[in-house]
Every structure is written in structure tokens, then in C-alpha cells.
Write a structure and sequence with these properties.
By secondary structure, the protein is of the alpha+beta class. Helix content is 34%, strand content 23%. The chain has a 4-stranded antiparallel beta sheet. The longest helix is centred in the last third of the chain and has 16 residues. The radius of gyration is 17 Å and the shape is globular.
């Protein structure tokens, strides 16, 4: 039997500690991030790794660009469109400053302009 003290104590995840200040990632983003775990590093491979991961999830890479200080500890940003129920949603893949890890992030207030640009980009592509 588990003591009440242990049962009341927050348990650590097997995947690492839980940061309660960060919003929870939707399952689609977690799956995408896990599919990028084998990333070998470098700017050149970033775009292709993200393109393949997006394709496996039924999504697509829209574009990538230098982070230029938009997001902390980020060298490049890839903007993806992935399935979300019956529609598509825009998400971000971020290459860290070392060029060795890719993390997924849902857009927030600091990156809302990228979502607006992505929406405009999609409209242009649909018209072509």
C-alpha cells in the first residue's frame, strides 16, 4: 500500500521532470518531437528532417527561416502544418543554438506573426 505522503507527492515522469510553467504539448506535437529524436544535427539536415517528420504525420513543411532572436535558444524555425482533428494547424519546429536538437512548440503571442504569415503563405499557394 502506498503511504498518503507518497501518494500526495507529485511523481516525476519517466521522460523527465514536468515543468508546470510550460503549456502542455498536444499529442500531435509530442509525436512529431519524438519522431525527430534521431536528428543528427546541422542546419542543412534540419529542413529535411522536419519535412520527413511532417510528412509521416500527414502534414507538410511550409517554410523555414533563421530565428534571429525571435525565440530563446533557437537557431532556425520551421513552420509546419499538421492534422488536428478534421482541420490543419500551424506548429513550429525549433532548432537549438547548438544545431543538435529539434523541439516542437505551439505558436504563442511571441510567434503569432509567424502564424499570420503562414496563413497568408497558404492562401497564396492555394491560389496558384
Amino acid at each position: 500500500m502506498i503511504s498518503p505522503e507518497i501518494a500526495a507527492r507529485p511523481q516525476a515522469s519517466a521522460l523527465g521532470g514536468i515543468d508546470h510553467t510550460e503549456p502542455a504539448l498536444p499529442m500531435e506535437l509530442v509525436e512529431l518531437e519524438l519522431s525527430l529524436e534521431g536528428y543528427a544535427g546541422g542546419d542543412a539536415g534540419f529542413c529535411e528532417a522536419v519535412r520527413q517528420a511532417a510528412g509521416r504525420s500527414g502534414g507538410e513543411l511550409l517554410f523555414d527561416l533563421p530565428a534571429a532572436g525571435l525565440i530563446e535558444d533557437c537557431r532556425r524555425i520551421a513552420v509546419l502544418r499538421i492534422p488536428d482533428g478534421g482541420s490543419m494547424r500551424v506548429v513550429l519546429a525549433l532548432l537549438d543554438h547548438n544545431g543538435t536538437e529539434i523541439r516542437m512548440q505551439a505558436p504563442d503571442a511571441d510567434t503569432a506573426h509567424l502564424v499570420r504569415f503562414a496563413d497568408a503563405f497558404i492562401e497564396v499557394l492555394e491560389r496558384i
